[in-house]
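Contributing new records

If you add data, match the layout below exactly. Sequence lines come first and carry their own label; structure lines follow with theirs. Keep one chain per record. Anything else will be rejected by the validation script.
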Amino acid sequence: MTSKPSIFLVEDDLSFGAVLKSYLEINDFEVNWVDDGQHALTQFKRNSFDICILDVMLPNVDGFTIGTEIRKINTNIPILFLTAKNLREDVLKGYRIGADDYITKPFDTEVLIFKIKAILKRQSGIQPQDVGFYQIGDYLFDYKLRIIGRDGAKQKLSPKEAELLKMLCDNLNELLPRETALKKIWGDDGYFTARSMDVYLTKLRKIFADDPSVEIRNIHGSGFLLEIKNC
């Protein structure tokens, strides 16, 4: 039996921390919760974890300091920062420390779960087999030829449409972060390339409009999710 992923959670808000811990456990994670930054490193050293979720604003020792010290102990463990502030300087500081992601309070708990799973999937190093064909509801997508078809009708996709659809397929039922898609396909995650990607997503949604089992969902500005129901 596969063990549950283990989360090291540092959050000083007792009410929020208790709710978040319970929600994560309901979603099949094991959670070690510490409510004071002063005791965080001691607890971290006592156990083995798969991912750290650190609140930035903590009593005694802040989340950035804890993250820096954790990086000295374990250079590979993923770190996700929680913050009540959305300041560019704080975000950049977190990434300089080596953050894998950053989420601003208040946040959708579903988004947090998607982010955790996406980080752990990347961390595992498991890559999908590149067979070149994907069954998407009633549609068959040939990535190499950039053709998608249904009931004998076929449609040619542009290179970027094909790349975007492949990334969605490789992350089926999991969050595809917006920045990841932009940087891999467009090489840039600026405003204009983001608007361009939205146009391509609209085109892909039109392709699947006649198949209610297929949906490309926006996940609250964090990214996108290709969902195939009853599959």
